[in-house]
Request: fold
Amino acid sequence: MLSQIKSLKRTNNRTVRLPKWLPFAGFVAVCAFPVVLSILFYTLRSNSGAMDWAATRVSAPIRGALGFISSIFPFSLMETLIVFAGVFLIRYIVITVKTTRRCFEKLKYLSKRLLMIAVVFLYIWSLFCWLWNSGYHAPGFGAKNGFTRSGVTVEDLTAVTAFFAMKANELAPLVSRDDDGHYAEDEREIFALSPFVYDRVSVEFPSLGGRIYKPKPMMFSWLMSRTGYTGVYFALTGESNFNANAPLFLIPATIAHELAHQLGVAREDEANFVGILACVTSGYTTYEYAGYLSGLIHLRSALFLTDDYEAWVKISDYLCDEVYIDLQDNSDFWWSQKTVETGVTFLDNVLTSMTETLSDTVDAVYDGYLRAQSQELGIRSYGACVDLLVEYYTKQMANNNER
Reply:
């Protein structure tokens, strides 16, 4: 009996041996998955139907879930992850260098470490392609809502610019200002109103009726200012982030722009247009003024480049003192971010040069990224919202004249 029990134990304790090739096959599968995702994206990105399906059926729900999760945190999860990734990468490189120097099989060890970094990068990039870049290759907001984008005449551009100047003049005195006439609204109130900015515009454009999560001020706003950017939407966390150091009177328009990205409007020109439209229809004075002022800046810039310089001068002379103060404050702020003043000439020159190089580099990288996503204008896409503004408001003014 005892011998039978011992025999049974040996049988039950028998080691199950896995095939030797299985761990290697699993490793290959883990490494190959992001490659397959990337190849699939680049193969299908010219198919607007496939990209539209991916953007609406896959990307939007996932980004919405990520936005809900990230909204739990009061700080920018994007910034936290980027800082963590930077620290991790530096530590990873240091360990790799130290270990490689004393390792016997240097090439084998270094290859494995580099492969791990490459695989992680490919996972991040492939996910980003499907969660965000797919929107650039799908039919945009304009195409889905009947905008022709057939260009504008100088006459229409002048009329719409004059309309925005008139509205900015009406609203500029209604916002809070200090004794010197500078903008002095409460930033907390602006921030609190952000989830409701799209309530009215979503009635006209139902695709803008999705759930909105509050945008987050960036901890590294000073760096955003130095590079000349006012906000960023990060698809991998579903967050809208804004530069809290930028001029306050335009922050509502920046918030609305980033929320447009959150709602699935990928192209920068369309996000600018949608953000402006959401602001001016919101019913909140601070947002309405920011929308008209932001639109006026783009429209005046476009009008300045036309042959009708007299129209630009006439509209500029028409602007009230409050609008001029805000426009000047905006110019002064961004000009101040191009230079560094410590009181030491040599140090000022070096830091200013570094700031210019950083800004130019960021612009070049972002411009290349946008062009790679079939946005032919690159970073100039932001100003291309003029076409949409003129087309939309020309129709609105024509309809009002017919009534």
Observations:
- The beta strands are 216-217, 231-234, 239-242.
